[in-house]
């Protein structure tokens, strides 16, 4: 039996729902996103795209390009309601569904086409059913594998239906630019072009991946296989979460270490709760920092022991932040070329400059050497205004291998008990019914003044299911630009041109 994979993408999903619920919007450019000065476009209708508006664009830029557009604040509850309805319709055709986001999924439909006159008839039946029940159009692609199915769904939007038949995989791919290969972003594309590979057919001409190894290293085999239409990935109905993260773009730049501390306390608290809900533990903690000039840097550290503890995430963030600040102030000022590398580049950084407690009672070693007290080391002031902060926990596991020990960390034992009680109270009375003094101050600020938050992020934050993101080892920028990122509509955090550097600590 031949294998058939279907990729479904709900066209301009948020904007389409707004036009559905408000018939007077039909035929007009609709832009959904944050409406503040620092808001970004979550998505927009195809009428708006004719003006050059696109996802992740600053709202201020969108209003210049399309001043007469209809600007709408996102309604995540409504979008999720419609999404659930569409996924229920797709389950009428097949139980094998891999959700990629609120508006995108892979479907395993092998054998289903025999019930129709072929794969195209099956795809049309699903499209018709969705339109009948919701009034929304979707684009779909059917192919022998996931890569080709995704590619096919992008070829004829909106309301498209493209089938790549068996035996024509290489033929369809040959004339396309190499950036259409999943995972080939600007950096990898530049390297491949420098090596003489401009079109996919140039890679197809190679007998194997050996010629590509000096150029792209361990990515060579995957790139060569995809160029030849080879993709053995299965549709994962129970897709494992690789990472969870929290980030915010601020209405007012952060300039003080104390304010930075409150933000990371909030992030650590939030991520810890989400891990406990899923009985997951994280191996790696990373921070993300974006300055007012859009220079973006990140640092990460692998934990000695996987954890779901708030204090572990916070103290690791403290370590990473202060090391970053030391690097910035002692070696190179913000925005110099030395601190700017290609997205995803990784460098090793020694942490010998840090002072740790040598307490004899330290029997837990989650982050290497543990602080005797988080109050003994404070967050350093940043060298310049901070526009965005983020905290991510990755390398998630459901079970943690435990090493026998005569001792147990009193802090961890106490936190486990306290977390259990707080989780119970929050489930009954709401998330803000009980909170620590630091979190209260973060929400309300000194003298009762609440910190301003990004409007769009605040709306998305209310939907925890949309925050769990998949992590890959490929160029993230390429996936977002070439393949229309699975989180583009739900996590529009790109505000403008940016430079990114990532380091391990």
In short:
The chain is an alpha/beta fold. It contains 17 helices and 15 strands.
How would you characterize the overall build of this protein?
The chain has helices at 13-21, 46-49, 59-65, 76-91, 119-134, 146-153, 169-173, 186-194, 200-204, 213-216, 220-227, 257-278, 310-330, 410-429, 437-444, 455-461, 476-482; strands at residues 5-10, 30-33, 41-44, 70-72, 97-101, 104-108, 138-143, 161-163, 243-254, 282-291, 295-307, 346-348, 386-394, 468-469, 499-504. It has 505 residues and is α/β, with parallel strands linked by helices. The chain has three domains: 1-166, Reverse transcriptase/Diguanylate cyclase domain (Alpha-Beta Plaits); 170-227, 5' to 3' exonuclease, C-terminal subdomain (DNA polymerase, domain 1, Orthogonal Bundle), CATH 1.10.150.20; 243-504, 2-Layer Sandwich (Dna Ligase, domain 1). The strands form three sheets. It has a seven-stranded mixed beta sheet with strand order 12-15-11-10-13-9-14. The chain has a five-stranded mixed beta sheet with strand order 5-6-1-7-8. A hairpin with a 2-residue loop joins strand 5 and strand 6. The protein is globular and about 70 Å long.
């Amino acid at each position: 039996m031949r294998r058939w994979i279907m990729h479904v993408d709900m066209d301009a999903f948020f904007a389409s729902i707004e036009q559905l619920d408000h018939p007077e919007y039909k035929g007009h450019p609709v832009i959904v996103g944050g409406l503040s000065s620092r808001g970004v476009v979550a998505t927009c209708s195809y009428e708006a795209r004719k003006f050059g508006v696109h996802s992740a664009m600053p709202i201020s830029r969108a209003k210049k390009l399309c001043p007469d557009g209809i600007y709408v604040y996102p309604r995540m509850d409504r979008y999720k309601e419609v999404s659930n309805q569409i996924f229920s319709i797709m389950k009428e055709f097949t139980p094998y569904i891999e959700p990629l986001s609120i508006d995108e999924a892979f479907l395993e439909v092998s054998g289903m086409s025999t019930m129709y006159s072929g794969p195209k008839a099956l795809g049309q039946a699903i499209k018709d059913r969705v339109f009948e029940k919701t009034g929304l159009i979707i684009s779909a692609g059917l192919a022998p594998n996931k890569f080709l199915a995704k590619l096919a769904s992008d070829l004829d939007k909106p309301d498209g239906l493209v089938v790549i038949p068996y035996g024509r995989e290489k033929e369809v791919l040959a004339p396309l630019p190499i950036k259409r290969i999943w995972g080939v972003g600007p950096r990898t594309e530049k390297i491949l072009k420098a090596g003489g590979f401009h079109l996919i057919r140039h890679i197809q001409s190679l007998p194997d991946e050996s010629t590509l190894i000096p150029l792209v290293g361990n990515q060579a085999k995957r790139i060569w296989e995809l160029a030849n239409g080879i993709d053995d990935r299965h549709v994962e109905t129970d897709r494992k979460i690789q990472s969870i993260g929290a980030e915010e773009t601020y209405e007012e730049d952060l300039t003080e270490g104390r304010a930075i501390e409150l933000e990371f306390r909030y992030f650590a608290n939030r991520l810890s709760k989400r891990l406990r809900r899923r009985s997951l533990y994280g191996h790696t903690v990373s921070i993300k920092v974006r300055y007012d000039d859009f220079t973006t840097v990140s640092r990460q550290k692998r934990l000695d022991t996987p954890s779901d503890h708030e204090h572990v995430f916070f103290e690791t963030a403290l370590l990473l932040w202060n090391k970053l600040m030391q690097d910035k102030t002692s070696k190179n000022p913000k925005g110099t070329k030395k601190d700017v590398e290609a997205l995803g580049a990784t460098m090793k950084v020694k942490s010998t400059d840090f002072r740790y407690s040598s307490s004899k009672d330290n029997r837990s070693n989650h982050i290497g050497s543990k602080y005797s007290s988080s109050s003994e080391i404070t967050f350093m002031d940043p060298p310049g205004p901070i526009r965005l902060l983020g905290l991510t926990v990755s390398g998630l596991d459901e079970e943690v291998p435990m090493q026998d020990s005569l001792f147990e960390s009193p802090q961890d034992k106490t936190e486990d008990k306290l977390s259990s009680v707080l989780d119970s109270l929050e489930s009954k009375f709401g998330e803000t019914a009980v909170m620590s003094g630091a979190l209260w101050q973060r929400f309300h600020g000194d003298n009762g003044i609440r910190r301003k938050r990004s409007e769009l992020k605040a709306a998305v934050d209310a939907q925890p299911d949309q925050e769990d993101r998949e992590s890959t080892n490929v160029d993230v920028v390429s996936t977002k630009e070439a393949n229309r990122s699975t989180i583009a509509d739900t996590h529009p955090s790109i505000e403008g041109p940016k430079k990114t550097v990532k380091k391990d600590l």
